[in-house]
Design goal:
By secondary structure, the protein is of the alpha+beta class. It is built from 10 helices and 17 strands. It binds zinc ion.
Length: 427
């Protein structure tokens, strides 16, 4: 942020080195690791400092936002480090001035920069029509402080130093990070289940070890994921007894009471655990499926199921997470949701329109019979293959549209139907 302090030559040098870094990173894999600050090993002072960092961070964020609104200036015209004091509300809602104690000026900069980039994102979303309102909102809680290279450091394999917190802190999870990575940015995260350091790394791209096989996946609601090999992968997540108990407890608490707040806190923690379980299960499933060189799946509207009659089943599964993780894999081919993978008979190519959700077995008049979901999963592979010559779907082709399906398969359906009719005419 030292605008104007560099000579033209220096500026060119900085630009060149930035470009070189970006170029190097473009051929590397980005991986994010989550390290947990071990709660019970923090001393009292460290706990207080961490809590205060987020509290002051929130006050600072809200202060900048109100300055921007009051003075009607864009965010990038606010100098974040000029604020030593912020105006915040006390318990009774009165505005009081508060002198920032622990928030380092560097964090003021990173929070400010994050605000600017968030504002940009919102504006872009509004422009695309994906979001209606376009402005930053005041926060009741700050959950993330962006960190730059100098703001934190590994002291050894298990300990980390962080700007604004005295001493070193024990972290869990460092062993997942290979030794030869390049660290990019990091975020300090506050969640119901503790403090975390989310570290972004660049590492050498690994050649994917694929098994050379292909698999089709039917993402169902009832039996979860069915593969073309006939396997049913269970993706349900049991709601813990503790969660149920706490939900009941909450309904009994008086609104605004201290006890209610305590239950809310416990409930948040229990929900976080549930989310962690979902993530863990999803990771394991995706890891196993990743072994296939080619994964075919259909783009079904899972978010829509949330509102429909199956919402309870969807809520208690990791289907959404698995789906988005699979779609991010380079070997995944997605079929348009209107392609009739369930209705089409692979043998005689007729379309069965009277198939209801209750029919668990697909039975065709031509004699073909198969478990409904396995049938759909198998169909995905054959449909995808018939859309391309020699059954080879090019790597960069990540989705198969309805038009492509119609061009390749509908002709076949038409001709086979005509063929059947002529058989009847000439017995
Ligand atoms: Zn048939």
């Amino acid at each position: 942020m030292s605008r104007g302090l560099h000579t033209e030559e220096e500026k060119a040098k900085i630009r060149a080195s930035k470009q070189a870094t970006a170029f190097r990173h473009s051929s590397m894999d980005v991986k994010v690791y989550e390290l947990k600050l071990v709660d019970r090993r923090l001393n009292k002072q460290q706990k207080e400092q961490l809590d205060l960092l987020f509290l002051e961070g929130k006050w600072f964020y809200n202060h900048i936002l109100s300055e921007k609104k009051k003075r009607e200036i864009p965010l990038n015209c606010v100098n974040p480090t000029s604020f030593k004091d912020v105006v915040k509300k006390d318990k009774d809602g009165h505005e009081v001035s508060y002198k920032l104690q622990v928030l380092p000026s560097h964090f003021k900069q990173t929070i400010h920069m994050r605000m600017i980039s968030n504002e940009k994102t919102i504006r872009a979303l509004v422009k695309k029509g994906l979001q209606k309102h376009g402005s930053l909102k005041f926060k009741s809680e700050l959950s993330c402080i962006p960190l730059k290279g100098m703001d934190w450091k590994f002291k050894n394999a298990r300990k980390v130093w962080l700007m604004g917190v005295k001493g070193q802190m024990l972290v869990r999870g460092v062993e997942q990070i290979p030794t030869d990575v390049e660290f990019a940015n990091a975020n300090l995260i506050k969640r119901a289940d503790g403090y975390f350091l989310k570290v972004t790394t660049y590492q050498k791209r690994k050649e994917q070890e694929n098994n050379g096989k292909e698999i089709g996946l039917d993402l169902g609601i009832k039996t979860s994921i069915t593969t073309s090999k006939g396997e049913k992968i269970d993706i349900s997540i049991e709601e813990s007894d503790r969660l149920k108990k706490l939900q009941k407890e909450l309904s009994r608490r008086v609104k605004g009471s201290n006890n209610r707040w305590k239950t809310v806190k416990k409930l948040r923690k229990a929900y976080q655990k549930q989310t962690n379980k979902k993530q863990d299960k999803a990771n394991k499933i995706v890891h196993r499926l990743k072994a296939y060189s080619r994964i075919y799946m259909q783009d079904e509207n899972i978010a829509g199921w949330h509102n429909g009659m199956f919402w309870k089943k969807v809520q208690h599964s990791c289907l959404g997470t698995v789906k988005s993780k699979l779609m991010a894999l380079p070997q995944t081919v997605v079929l348009d949701k209107f392609i009739p993978t369930t209705k089409l008979c692979p043998k005689c190519h007729s379309i069965k329109n009277n198939l209801s959700l209750a029919d668990r077995t697909y039975v065709c008049s031509c004699g073909y019979q198969e478990d409904r979901d396995v049938h759909a999963a198998k169909n995905m592979i054959s449909i995808a293959k018939s859309c391309f010559e020699d059954g080879f779907v090019p790597t960069e082709h990540r989705e198969i549209t309805l038009t492509e399906f119609k061009a390749a398969v509908a002709d076949e359906i038409l001709s086979s139907k005509l063929g059947r009719r002529s058989e009847k005419i000439t017995p």
